[in-house]
Amino acid sequence: KVLIDVPRSDLAEELAQSETKIQVLQDTLQQVLDRREEERQSRQLLELYLEALKTEDSILSKVAEPQAAPRKEMDVVDTGTSSTDASATTALRDQVLSALKEKPVPELCLDSQDLELVLKEDAAALASALGWDKQKAGALQEACEQELSKRLQQVQALHSLRSTSKGKQTLP
């Protein structure tokens, strides 16, 4: 930073170089400083994002906990009486089914595990559980697949950024 702030003519005289070379040197140093600042801001943004994800996960887990116990009890009761067709539709929790029915863009409201469950579900069984036609259920599954794919790409990008960032931190 000091070398950038020194007047070009003084630095050229001190280093016995032309002012043109000093200009190139100062420009290069400024680019390095700019890049470091961008990296710092990117790291801060990623940290905030990860913190927000942790907060969201803890909130969602607290919301899901009270519902978990009744579901287990219901599953135990249903095990003896359910048919194979009914077990396929109960693979999706009531919470997921209600989100799929009520939300205008449900794939954005579901976590990745629920998106995977929706994708694994048979389109006909999903349509039956939601009271929709098979085409609408298929479109929903396609939207869920695209969202899951996008999330996986984001995770891969974060891992790539993290490994790149770790690699740069070890350099002197």
TrEMBL record:
InterPro entries membership: DFF-C, DNA_fragmentation_mid_dom
Residue span of region Disordered: 64-87
Domain DNA fragmentation factor 45kDa middle: 2-118
Keywords: Coiled coil
SUPFAM superfamilies, sorted: C-terminal domain of DFF45/ICAD (DFF-C domain)
Biased segments, Low complexity type: 77-87
Pfam family, one: DFF-C
Positions in coiled-coil regions: 8-42
UniProt protein name: DFFA factor
Source organism (scientific name): Elachura formosa
